[in-house]
Amino acid sequence: MNFTRIKISWIYKTPLLMLIILTTIISLNSVNLVSEINLQKSLSVTPINTITDLIPQDMTQQSDNINLSRLIFEIYFDILPNDEDVEVTAHYTYQNEGNTSINNIINILDVNTVLVDRRLSSIVVSDSIGDLYYEWTIINDDHIINISLREPINYNEFYSYTISYLLEDAIQKSFETVQSFIFQWIITHHENIEQFTTVVTLPSKYELSNQSALEPNADYQSVDGKRFEWNDYDINEFETQIWIVRFQVYQAPITPQLPPKKGAWYGMIGTFFLGLLIGGFTIFYIIKSKTDIERKVIVETLLSPPEKEIIRIIKNENGVTTQSKICSISAFSKAKVSYYLNELESKGIVKKERWGRMNRIRIIDHSVDKAYVKQTE
């Protein structure tokens, strides 16, 4: 009797136990399957390369850049003397080649350097009038700037704007030599560009490390060796370029100072007397100029309005003209012009000379000749 009860109890419990075991196995397999699917998804993510892929879905103007053609892209890197940061100023010029007006431009900032810990800050977006409103989004280390334009860009119109920002911790310190540094910049273009210019400027405390410090060689280098420029044309989308600038703290050459030779004393004495001579002439011309100015003020104060008008006409004729031309320009009568010319001649300001059948008038007072005589009203 007891054996029968035990057997029946085992029969009822066995299916329940099997059901629990089966459910546990299925659950474990499901968890493993989901984990494997998630891992495959994370490993199968393709890199984002185009502007359309990078633009978030909530940006309503995401199709605007399709109609834009980037004509000019100029980017300037000013390396700061703190051995760490770089100021970046980028100028863009676009043309609207579509049939619809454009209110927003989406721009991807190219801030890829050799260092991973770089940071971007202090963004300012502006055009020729002033600052522009923008939204800043970071996706997969790409800095996306959605710029609201001041006015829509219509078909075939051009528009230029500037984005400036600070690239922090962008300078790599080199241990090859003492106080040596490297700035490396990498760009993969997201658009076709007709003209592309890169400019790197070193502050006065730095100089290039050696003759092969630039990669590639610059198209232009300033005389002081602090500014380097590269120019490229017809850049294709997805094209990648790399620049490397190796520099170090400037070390001024030491020139040994030799004691002056015996003949140098004669040169020093001659220089002293030459300085006295030049100083004397300078004082003379200063006094003369001051005298001319005072003479000009006195003469202009004493001149009557018709006299000033006549002098102005002569000055406009390069200091020499005829009496008849003064009459025609001033609309004064011949008698009036003759009277005031006699007055000016008596004051030693002008001189009348016979020139064929006409009288030629010229200014002989240099202080008045250099002065500006206002036109009479």
Structural class: alpha+beta
Give the tally of β-strands.
Answer: 19
CATH class membership of the largest domain: Mainly Beta
Average pLDDT number: 76
Reported for the largest beta sheet, the result is: 7 strands, mixed
The end-to-end distance, rounded to whole angstroms, is: 142 Å
Envelope shape: flat
How many domains is the backbone divided into?
A: 3
User: Whole-number radius of gyration?
Assistant: 41 Å
Main sheet strand line-up: 5-8-2-1-11-15-14
Q: Strand content of the residues, in percent?
A: 35-45%
Task: Provide the succession of SSEs.
Answer: HHEEEEEEEEEEEEEEEEHHEHHEEH
Q: Supply the CATH architecture of the largest domain.
A: Sandwich
CATH topology of the largest domain, what is it called?
Immunoglobulin-like
- Unreliable runs: 1-12, 28-49
Count of alpha/pi helices: 7
How much helicity do the residues have? 25-40%
Tell me about this structure.
This protein is an alpha+beta fold and 377 residues long. Helix content is 33%, strand content 35%. The chain is built from seven helices and 19 strands. The chain has helices spanning 2-43, 51-54, 262-302, 305-316, 323-330, 334-346, 366-369, and strands at residues 68-79, 86-96, 102-109, 112-113, 119-126, 134-139, 142-153, 158-168, 172-174, 180-188, 193-201, 206-208, 214-215, 220-221, 227-235, 240-249, 320-322, 350-355, 358-363. The strands form four sheets. A seven-stranded mixed beta sheet has the order 5-8-2-1-11-15-14, with no helix packed on it. A hairpin with a 5-residue loop joins strand 9 (172-174) and strand 10 (180-188). The N and C termini lie far apart (142 Å). The model is unreliable at 1-12 and 28-49 (pLDDT under 50).
